[in-house]
Amino acid sequence: MSSTIVSLIQALASGILVGGVYGLFSIGFSLAFGVMRIVNFAHGELVMLGMYVAYSVYLLTGADPLFAIPIVGIFLAVIGAGLYLVVYERFVGKATLQQLLVAIAVSMIIQIVLQMIYGPETRGVQSVLGSQYFIYGPYLFSYGQIAAFLVALICVGLLELLLQKTRWGKLIRAVADDPEAAEIVGANSRAINTIAFAVSCGLAGIAGCVLVITYPVNPATGMALMPIALIATVIGGLGSIKGAFLGGIVCAVVQQLTSTFWSPALQDVPLYALLLVFLAFFPFGLLGRKTAH
Amino acid sequence: MSEASTSLGNETSRPVAGPRIVVPVVIIGLMACLPFVVGANSHLLGIAVRALLFIALGQAWNIVAGIGGQLSLGHGVFFGVGAYGTAILFNRFGVTPWVGGVAGATAAIAVAVLMGAATFRLRGVYFALATVAISLCLEKLARYFIGVTGGDAGLAVRFIGDSVWAAQSRGPLAFFVAALVMVVAYYALTRRLLRSRFGYQLQAIRDDEEAAAASGVPVFRTKMGGLILSAGMTALTGALYVQFYLAIDPGAAFGLAQAIQIQLPSLIGGLGTAGGPVIGGAIMILVSELTNWLSARTAFHGLDILAYGSILLVVVMFVPGGILGRTRRGA
Q1: ipTM of this complex
Q2: Domain-by-domain residue ranges, chain B?
Q3: How close A263 gets to chain B, by Cα (Å)?
Q4: Which residue in chain A is spatially nearest to B151 when comparing CA positions?
Q5: pLDDT in tens, A160-170
């Protein structure tokens, strides 16, 4: 087998593994948009916050970030609920420019506060999983990435179950479809929105935990992740959960292919081009419904 | 803050005397007196140049965002093209910045036409997000093409000493005068624009795009005109910036923090008003100097970004119209 094909398959497979985690935090971003029409520009910073908290837990207890998932997830969910009630609630329902500016302000504040606490250096954890590799023929996969992908799959499965089977999930979907109609039939949109935003941020925290196993974190990480959540969500169809997961995988595969065949420094450039193409020509994405706007 | 109710929405630009004119004129007038008070080589004059550059960028952004209602988060692109264009033409080809600045502005206008064509069918938040993407994309490219842009480290303009031809000077006075002229010109231009046919068309699109289109406003052409004007002004300011600082790097040109800095003067002072960016820019330089002073004493870096973020949050949440507030439908 020629080396090009080996590189191609390796890039595709790594892309899918990394993409699971991208999908995980993109779902959170998409959930906030789908249910509340909030473009949470600070979502990348929240993932980064999750990474730093997992790092702190590791420093204090030596626990592998995988075991920190529940703590970090809950911590971020609480932060998310607070953020929603204090900042975002007044903007619910219309994706306004004011809301976007406020979210940008939140992201700047989180970034600088974290930089003040942890310093500008890059920090990573020594996970048992991160440094070990699964080797199959010419292919090489980090156990950290495989574990991250599995965690992402489990979370997405649980979320889907929650949305489809529980009363709360039905209400969320109802609010996402038509907030006014949902209100009329008796849904308490404030409680539903708060929980949905908490789940959105909790997912960001979980994604942070699994990301920090393989990716060291520095204060610029959030700003690098935010465009991915945005692009994955737009590609998948704004507001669509499955679409965002799929979009995350598309993003990671594009990154891996660009990085393998062009340059790692330019791995994000085709993503921006994809975003513009989708915004201009396919605003409903791959799986979005026309009613999403 | 403003007595205008939404029913007066169409009269927002009627020429009102009072604080709207007096405050910005007083600020500009006081700044003009500065060299006579502190002398031609005072470092205070350098700070004043920074303030004027803040104001000029805010004025340029205000045209498209405040008057035209298109929230561009990509103005760093025009700024960067103007700054890099001038620096590259001078360093490589010995082109005088007087020509280089115009060439940079022309290039920025070309970019604006492409950007507009690609993004104007998008409304509101989608337009804003598209401009973010373009800005971040150019930042990556500027970091990658080291041969042209100097990569992460950026470019330093070749310094040849006091020279009119090279638009260089050891002291800040020349830059102070240039920046002051620029701010006064932009202020006059904005005031004129607000009362011109083109300005009314821009404002009509901002207030209600469908209604404007139905009344015969050429929507695409008007938006494009606003973006071109704004991009040209931003790029010229970028050219002056790079002459003053003699350096430019991808973060300072295309970074999101830069895009936010460009927006803050009009957001603080009053979006869509001629005087807003002047007031907002003056406030920003005070904040910026204060945080720099604190940073130097506390070893905390990024206090300015923290302050800008907090101001942005507070202004948008509690004073959405800015200091010279203007009530605005759907906003």
Answers
A1: 0.85
A2: 3-318
A3: 9
A4: A265
A5: 888 888 888 88
